[in-house]
Amino acid sequence: MSDTVFPIPKELRDPFFFSGDLVKIDENHVKPCEPFFAYELLYYNRRGADSPPWLVQGSWVKDILMEWKKDEEYLNVLFKGRSKGISESMRKSIARFYVLLYWSNKHPVRLENWQSSIESFSVKPVNIIERLTFIRNNPALYHSFIQLSQLFEEQHKQYAKYQALNQWANK
After folding, report:
1. Which of 27, 41, 97, 107 has its CA 20 to 30 A from that of 113?
2. What is the DSSP string of 10-76?
């Protein structure tokens, strides 16, 4: 394992996701949410792939949604058992949603002033800023979990619609 320590760039500084100023990444085994926004951490630190995943539309959507389905089942169990650790698991799932949202719009996640960047996106759920703000402010509420589940579903549908329209327009 070759962990490298990186500073958290200003584009990703958000106390909701990062408590410190540094993060470790294994550059040989990068995953979108381990640590949160790993590809973006490398990108903003001027490291990483020549073709970042948000510019390569395709298989990553299935991967993110598969990981979300696992998270969703786990969170369902946590909420039913009123277990501890809900907030941390929700943070991970919220980070995964940001990845889906931004990458669907061909952008790296940018947490700095995220509301403004999301406003300009063409592929997004209705009332996304209000809903995401509510979820972030109340990650331990069951209603936030339901809302997050709906956002994943709606973003997937919006992305599929976007892909279908683009495919049809390019024929």
Report:
1. 27
2. GGG--TTT-SSSEEEEETTS-BTBBTBTHHHHHHHTT-S-SS-GGGS-STHHHHHHHHHHHHHHHHH
